[in-house]
Amino acid sequence: MLFRALVHTFKITALLCCLLFYGCGNSSQLVLIKQVRLYDGSTIREQVDVLISDGVIISIGEHITDAAATIVDGKGKTIIPLLVNAHAHVHEPLHLKESLSQGIGTVLDLYTSSEKARQLRIYNDSTLYATYYTSGPGATAPGGHGTQLGYAVPTVSHPSEASLFIRNRVDDGVDYIKIIREPLRTTLDFKTIGALIEAAHQNDKLALAHISTLDDALAVSELKVDGFAHIWFDSAMDEEQLAQLATQKPFVIPTLYVTKKLLQYVDQKELALQHLHFDELQQEVYRLHQKQILLLAGTDAPNLGINYHDGLLEELRLLKASGLSDFEVLKTATINPAIAFNFLENQLIKENNKANFLLINGDPTSDIESITKIMGIWKSGTRIK
């Protein structure tokens, strides 16, 4: 009797773990999506068939048949890679679940504690949560931006401390390094930033920088930073400055939505902070785009009340209003982050890859608004919607 009760308890516990953590989605059946438009992360193909078996894409082509497959009508629909939020701050697993429920399959965390990062990485094996990448705690000066968050964070005071800081982050298992240059508070000097970038690259880690002014962006770009979290908002580039950035080509996560909210707050409170008008800021984004500088969509959630799901859509709308085509906007939230952060192979929709994609009612390559019409979500080979 006791043994039977223990077995019964074990089965219930296993079932609950499966439902809550993995979702128990069916990845073993054959699924055939017929006559669908496909944006695979590289090209757009019209009216193709996509066959999925055991969660793996086994065939993409025309006139595919399989009598055992469940048929999904793809007419009028588009398959696209899972979306990516390239700038967020995740505080709990629910935020990753909330993201995936709206088609965001990857979230790039750009500042958190080492302990929080360890806790959240556990959910990367789940089909119910967005995949999580993180910088862990960013490099900041004592009393600098990031030290006001209510938990202890490591700081850097001198170039001689850069190697140890980077080594500690690598030991923590971070995916990339964030460096903070924010003159509104005590901030890192450029020699220290240069040492941090060099140490990051020596450890095969990307280095991206939080900046808010054009002069800082230009100076840090000369130090070979890989990308910028945020776009400057104090002044506009002249042609020489634009040419400098075009030569260095750091990727840029403009975070237009949160910046728009910030500038509105500054104006409402009549704060003494020099800034561009928002339409001028959008023009800066478009000028970067014209120079083929890689743009990534990120929200900086949950700052200024931005959520983890449709906040990304607001960002995409602002990028479109900046002059990008619908297709280029879609790239900022799909393939561009994968190129910038080196997870391209996982993001591409191709034969022998796991099924990681959205089925959209409509064509987001020509109408970004249709991205809200999600008919299906596949993650790690499992359909979760």
Computed Rg: 22 Å
**Structural class label:** alpha/beta
Kindly report the name of the CATH homologous superfamily of the largest domain. Metal-dependent hydrolases
CATH architecture of the largest domain: Alpha-Beta Barrel
SSE run:
HEEEEEEHEHEHEHEHEHEHHHHHHEEE
Shape: globular
Number of strands: 15
Task: Give the N-to-C terminal Cα separation.
Answer: 40 Å
Mean residue pLDDT: 93
CATH fold group of the largest domain: TIM Barrel
Strand share of the residues? 15-25%
Helix content: 25-40%
For the largest beta-sheet, the strand count, sense and barrel status come to:
8 strands, mixed
CATH level-1 class of the largest domain: Alpha Beta
Q: Provide the low-confidence segments as ranges.
A: 1-20
Number of domains: 2
Number of helix segments? 13
Structure, briefly:
The protein has 385 residues and is of the alpha/beta class.
Topology at a glance:
Layout: H1 2-22, E1 31-39, E2 44-53, E3 56-61, E4 70-73, E5 77-81, E6 83-88, H2 93-101, E7 104-109, H3 114-121, E8 131-134, H4 162-172, E9 177-180, H5 190-202, E10 207-210, H6 214-221, E11 227-229, H7 239-248, E12 251-253, H8 256-268, H9 278-290, H10 311-321, H11 326-332, H12 335-340, H13 344-347, E13 357-361, E14 374-379, E15 382-383
Parallel strand pairs: 1-4, 1-5, 6-7, 7-8, 9-10, 10-11, 11-12
Antiparallel strand pairs: 1-2, 2-3, 5-13, 13-14, 14-15
Helix pairs in contact: 4-5, 10-11
InterPro entries: Amidohydro-rel (IPR006680), Metal-dep_hydrolase_composite (IPR011059), Metal_Hydrolase (IPR032466), Metallo-dep_Hydrolase (IPR051781)
Domain Amidohydrolase-related: 94-381
Keywords: Hydrolase
